[in-house]
């Protein structure tokens, strides 16, 4: 066979090297562009999350200045009573992130307003069902083993709740005045159509996030059962307060990935959805390393990223099962054993909680890494049809 001359190989090698450089530059450019898109959404979301969280965190700080009982009472109220309702309502409402994100990506802007109205109907009914729990919360806390002093004091949080209502009213005014770029076209009877599919997704979302919030809520209740619980409850509340500041940054940023993933899946751009997940994973790891300097559970940004990817993709039911296994079959039993049997007290309960969070983070990372994004994009329309109803395609 005729040998290829060395002079002929050089241009070929040079062309191959040039193509590799172009591919690397293209990947860098795609990463940079997607990172910019994420931070444009994440910046306002982080600011909003930090401001909202600061209301409870600062109130807790001032309660600590009043006394140990007041700090413990507010911690129980903020983590258990408000956490119960917040977990349910946020979970039921997070179905909007899936449906609105995928509807926007598919170019069906009018359905975003319809989905929001359906969510109002469902959340109003849910709020009515939760009212007795708030009314009789002091008695329920005593049934769970908390002292009468802490239980009664934890039943009086009025000003903080009024502040939350102010935020809701201002958000409504913004929606009604700006029209949200065509997404809001006024009230419609379509809000009452095809509710069952929306309820199914809302319930799956509620279970997923409630298992997340209640894990921390049960932690506070368990610590309250320890001998001489006042100081352990105060200590755990301070740890959770510190964790919350980091979590708000992660939640604000990872709300952006939920939007990006659902938008791209709705538009059928599976490759861009995969790039979004890659960018948010790298960024979350960087945030996690920064968070190490402030507290122990530095997996929070990574975990929040994976949770938001799950919401954007519509994996709420799958994540609910993962939460049950990691939190309630592993984390809580480990915390109870360390705290009570081995005498580590609040520190042992906190350690068990961190173990459950770390295990959940590992599982979510593995699930996300092995996801077939092309298949997810192909199934996006059928999911919107299933959960959002036939009106989305009229």
Automatic annotation (TrEMBL):
What Pfam families does this protein map onto? MatE (PF01554)
The answer to whether keyword Cell membrane applies is: no
Chain segments annotated as transmembrane: 120-141, 153-177, 213-233, 245-263, 275-293, 305-330, 350-373
Entry annotated with the keyword Transmembrane: yes
InterPro entries in the record, alphabetically? Answer: MATE_fam
Which keywords does UniProt give here?
Answer: Membrane, Transmembrane, Transmembrane helix
One Gene Ontology cellular component term attached to this UniProt record is: membrane
Q: What's one GO MF term for it?
A: antiporter activity
**Organism superkingdom:** Eukaryota
Q: Which family does it belong to?
A: Belongs to the multi antimicrobial extrusion (MATE) (TC 2.A.66.1) family.
Which PANTHER family does this one have?
A: MULTIDRUG RESISTANCE PROTEIN
- Protein name (Swiss-Prot/TrEMBL): Protein DETOXIFICATION
């Amino acid at each position: 066979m005729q040998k290829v001359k060395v002079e002929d190989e050089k241009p070929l090698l040079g062309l191959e090297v040039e193509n590799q450089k172009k591919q690397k530059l293209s990947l860098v450019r795609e990463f940079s562009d997607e990172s910019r898109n994420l931070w444009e959404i994440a910046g306002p979301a982080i600011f909003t999350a930090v401001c909202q969280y600061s209301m409870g965190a600062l109130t807790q700080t001032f309660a600590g200045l009043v006394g140990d009982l007041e700090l413990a009472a507010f911690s129980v109220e903020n983590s258990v009573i408000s956490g119960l309702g917040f977990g349910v309502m946020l979970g039921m409402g997070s179905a909007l992130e899936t449906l609105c994100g995928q509807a926007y990506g598919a170019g069906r802007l009018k359905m975003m307003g319809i989905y929001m109205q359906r969510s109002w109907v469902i959340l109003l009914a849910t709020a009515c069902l939760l009212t007795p729990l708030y009314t009789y919360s002091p008695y329920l806390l005593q049934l769970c083993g908390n002292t009468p002093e802490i239980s009664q004091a934890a039943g009086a949080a009025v000003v903080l709740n009024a502040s939350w209502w102010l935020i809701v009213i201002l958000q409504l005014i913004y929606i009604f005045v700006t029209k949200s770029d065509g997404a809001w076209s006024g009230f419609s009877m379509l809000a009452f159509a095809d509710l069952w599919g929306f309820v199914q997704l809302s319930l799956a979302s509620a279970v997923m996030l409630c298992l997340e919030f209640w894990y921390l809520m049960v932690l506070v209740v368990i610590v309250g059962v320890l001998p001489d619980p006042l100081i352990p409850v105060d200590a755990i509340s301070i740890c959770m307060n510190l964790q919350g500041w980091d979590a708000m940054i992660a939640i604000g940023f990872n709300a952006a990935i939920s939007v990006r993933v659902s938008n791209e899946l709705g538009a059928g751009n599976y490759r861009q959805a995969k790039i979004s997940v890659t960018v948010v994973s790298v960024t979350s790891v960087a945030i996690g390393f920064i968070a190490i300097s402030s507290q122990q559970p530095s997996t929070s940004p990574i975990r929040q990223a994976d949770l938001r990817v799950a919401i954007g993709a519509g994996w709420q039911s799958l994540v609910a099962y993962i939460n049950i296994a990691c939190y309630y079959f592993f984390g809580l039993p480990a915390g109870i054993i360390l705290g009570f049997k081995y005498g580590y007290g609040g520190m042992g309960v906190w350690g068990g909680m961190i173990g459950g969070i770390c295990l959940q983070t590992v599982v979510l990372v593995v699930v996300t890494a092995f996801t077939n994004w092309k298949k997810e994009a192909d199934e996006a329309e059928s999911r919107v049809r299933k959960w959002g109803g036939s009106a989305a395609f009229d």
